[in-house]
């Protein structure tokens, strides 16, 4: 395999790894925001304020929701870092700069933190 073919292959693999269905994620975010807005409206209509204590059952739901938020936030942070390095790779002019960006992408994508975050995120995606 020629060096240029190898570079093209690596670039395609990186892009395919990073390219996920962001439209679906955006739609899920919109749905979640709408649900939160509906909840706030219902609280206001019921006369509940944000400072009041939540009923006993709601605290468990809130803990679960905040754990899910943390999972999504961590995964999105790591994906954003990967995309940043991908852009650096695309914009790099020298082989040394491209190699540095590629090394950072490999370091992030093969790290235990990223793999763990991705597994938790995928599991969370299957639940919903």
What does this structure look like?
By secondary structure, the chain is mostly helical. It has a domain at 57-127. It contains five helices and no strands. α3 (56-91) packs antiparallel against α4 (95-109) and α3 (56-91) packs across α5. The model has no long low-confidence stretch (mean pLDDT 79).
Question: Could you give a quick summary of the protein structure above?
Answer:
This protein has helices at 3-18, 22-46, 56-91, 95-109, 112-127. With 128 residues, the chain is an all-alpha fold.
What is the element layout, followed by pairings?
Elements: H1 3-18, H2 22-46, H3 56-91, H4 95-109, H5 112-127
Helix pairs in contact: 3-4, 3-5
**In terms of structural class, how would the helical and strand content be classed?**
mainly alpha
Topology pattern, helix = H, strand = E: HHHHH
What helical percentage do the residues reach?
A: over 70%
- Helices, by number, come to 5
Query: What summary fits the major beta sheet?
Result: none
Number of E-state strands:
0
Proportion of strand residues: under 5%
End-to-end Cα distance, whole Å, is 43 Å
Low-confidence stretches: none
The overall average pLDDT, rounded, is 79
> From the alpha-carbon coordinates, what is the Rg to the nearest angstrom?
20 Å
Dominant shape: elongated
């Amino acid at each position: 395999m020629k060096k240029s073919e190898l570079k093209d292959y690596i670039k395609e693999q990186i892009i395919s790894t990073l390219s996920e269905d962001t439209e679906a994620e955006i739609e899920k975010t919109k749905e979640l925001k709408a649900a939160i807005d509906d909840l706030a409206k219902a609280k206001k209509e019921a006369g509940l304020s944000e400072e009041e204590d939540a009923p006993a059952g709601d605290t468990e739901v809130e803990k679960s929701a905040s754990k899910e938020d943390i999972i999504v936030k961590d995964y999105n942070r790591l994906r954003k870092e990967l995309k940043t390095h991908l852009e650096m790779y695309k914009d790099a002019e020298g082989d040394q700069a491209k190699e540095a960006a590629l090394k950072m992408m490999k370091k992030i994508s093969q790290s235990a933190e990223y793999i763990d975050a991705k597994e938790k995120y995928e599991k969370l995606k299957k639940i919903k």
